[in-house]
Design a protein that fits this description.
With 312 residues, the protein is α+β, with helices and mostly antiparallel strands. Helix content is 37%, strand content 18%. Strand 3 and strand 4 form a beta hairpin. The longest helix has 25 residues.
């Protein structure tokens, strides 16, 4: 029968680092294979499962109850390594699904499933050798497929970066390429957040010169843009499903950037007017609204000046 000890042995023979040869990774592998304690390896399946479901099944079938706040540990310290090795694939049903989507799922890759079904049989040594000959190219192919889904963005200063696919990052790309040239000409993008990488862009040196040290645990805006000529720091929230600059959020951002030597400007960005209409009642006064489908215009929510910081 499939056991945790056997799963650790599999991970060892697949040459995973020591940090992934442990109970957490073994249980993740077993639940990805739909292997309960009463099944043999030859019965392994290939269901698509998310992290929360995997953890629930670990508790149900193996009695291992992980705290909810360890979800990121499972994802970052086990599943990410499985992905990098080509052992599993991400969102095979919808490859362009946003990285931070609640529907994100993982599935054991077909070559890996064939190999793992042979564990404990006379075919295992030969299957393992054949798999190891193929796995490097497989991992490279899966990585290339993930990279092809990423969104390329050219920053105002010419640097090229890429963001994880889907979600608000399509809008973030529009902000960089359409909003910045019109409303912060000659400016510099000092920060961009990303779902699969907290700091996709983080110009720590320039931020420190403005008196700012970012806390990675702070609730950051989606973009921070330095309008150098005017001495403004433009804080932008890209809204597709939540998160406009409402009064509470405005005060949070003001507190987070209280040490800034540059004046703070608050902008909420929407892809279209239809999305704006859903949130118009929530927007804070003394902020700006930008809509990507009308990129050369701003909507000003009252106050004594148009597109500028307010002293308090």
């Amino acid at each position: 029968m499939a056991t945790v000890e056997e799963a650790i042995d599999v991970l060892s023979q697949l040459q995973f680092p020591r940090q992934q040869r442990n109970e957490r990774s073994a249980l993740t592998l077993l639940t990805l294979l739909d292997l309960t304690p009463d099944k043999d390896w030859i019965e392994a399946g290939g269901p698509m499962r998310g992290i929360t479901e995997l953890m629930d099944l670990m508790a149900e079938h193996y009695g291992k109850q992980y705290a909810p706040n360890t979800r990121e540990t499972v994802r970052r310290q086990t599943v990410h390594q499985f992905l990098a090795a080509g052992l599993v694939v991400l969102n095979p049903d919808e490859p362009d699904r946003p990285t931070n989507s609640a529907k994100t799922v993982y599935q054991v890759s077909p070559p890996s499933l064939r190999l793992l079904r042979a564990y404990g049989t006379a075919d295992w040594p030969v299957e393992l050798i054949n798999y190891q000959h193929r796995i490097e190219s497989l991992a490279e192919r899966y990585a290339l497929e993930r990279d092809l889904q990423r969104i390329p963005v050219t920053l105002p200063e010419g640097q090229e970066v890429s963001l994880s696919p889907g979600g608000q990052n399509e809008l973030v790309a529009r902000i960089v390429e359409d909003f910045c040239p019109v409303f912060t000409p000659g400016g510099a993008v000092l920060y961009i957040g990303d779902a699969d990488e907290k700091f996709a862009i983080h110009d720590e040196e320039r931020l420190q010169k403005l008196g700012i040290t970012l806390d990675e645990h702070g609730k950051m805006p989606d973009l921070v843009i330095h309008h150098v000529r005017r001495g403004w720091l433009v804080l932008v929230e890209a809204v597709t499903s939540h998160g406009p600059v409402n009064p509470k959020r405005r005060e949070e951002l003001r507190d987070l950037f209280a040490a800034s030597s540059a004046g703070l400007v608050f902008v909420t960005a929407f892809a279209d007017r239809r999305t704006l209409a859903k949130y118009v009642a929530d927007l804070s006064w003394e902020t700006e609204v930008w809509v990507a489908e009308d990129p050369t215009h701003l909507i000003h929510f009252d106050g004594e000046r148009f597109l500028g910081p307010y002293e308090q």
